[in-house]
Specification:
Blueprint lengths: L1 H15 L6 E5 L4 E13 L10 E18 L3 E14 L1 H4 L1 H11 L1 H8 L4 H4 E10 L2 E8 L36 E8 L6
Antiparallel strand pairs: 1-2, 2-3, 3-4, 4-5, 5-6, 6-7
Helix pairs in contact: 3-4
């Protein structure tokens, strides 16, 4: 109980006074723009079940976003974009009953997967080349497609599949969408309209 109280006394002020961007900087004469943040999410159970689990999750998520402007001229604009999300869940460190329940019910693989992503398909959300050449626009790589959404349900935004295997609460849609490898092309002639 003392350990839980100490963790809450440290985590609550950090969460209250946390800035949106933990860091933001530009390199290479402004051609490389980087930013990122750290998000802490704590999900407590209000009642105990037969497994006596108190914490659903105590997840720390590290986000990194990078935009590199390769070329920008009057005819050509080429950029690389990267969005990575890496998480670590400390809930298993705090709640031994949950740790034992996951090992008993899911095995060691599920225990390891619950704590952190397994491979680059899980932590690499978006990575694409954005190319604009005169009337042609192309986006090539792993990307999220957003056509519209509401607060509680997905209406038209059903392109990207959802990774709900370790979702224990209700995060933003962007937090558990899976990026897809695809090509998006637009061709808009100048005098078409």
């Amino acid at each position: 109980m003392k350990r839980l109280l100490v963790i809450l006394l440290i985590a609550v002020p950090l969460l209250i006074f946390q800035k949106k961007d933990a860091f933001s900087f530009k390199l290479l004469k402004g051609n490389l723009d980087c930013k990122g943040n750290v998000q802490q999410t704590l999900n407590l159970r209000t009642h105990e079940d037969v497994r006596d689990v108190r914490f659903s999750s105590f997840r720390t998520t590290f986000r990194f976003e990078g935009l590199y402007k390769v070329v920008k001229t009057s005819d050509l604009d080429m950029r690389f974009y990267l969005l990575a999300n890496y998480y670590y869940d400390e809930g298993l460190d705090l709640d031994t009953d949950q740790r034992h329940a996951i090992r008993r019910e899911g095995g060691k693989d599920k225990y390891r997967d619950f704590r952190r992503p397994r491979n680059s398909e899980e932590w690499l959300t978006e990575f694409y080349l954005d190319l604009k050449y005169r009337d042609l626009q192309a986006r090539i790589g792993k990307q999220l497609v957003s056509w519209g959404e509401t607060a509680e349900s997905r209406v038209a935004d059903v392109i990207n599949p959802l990774d709900t295997k370790y979702m224990v609460a209700f995060p933003d849609w962007e937090d558990f969408k899976i990026g897809l490898w695809m090509v998006r092309l637009y061709y808009t002639p100048k005098y078409f309209w």
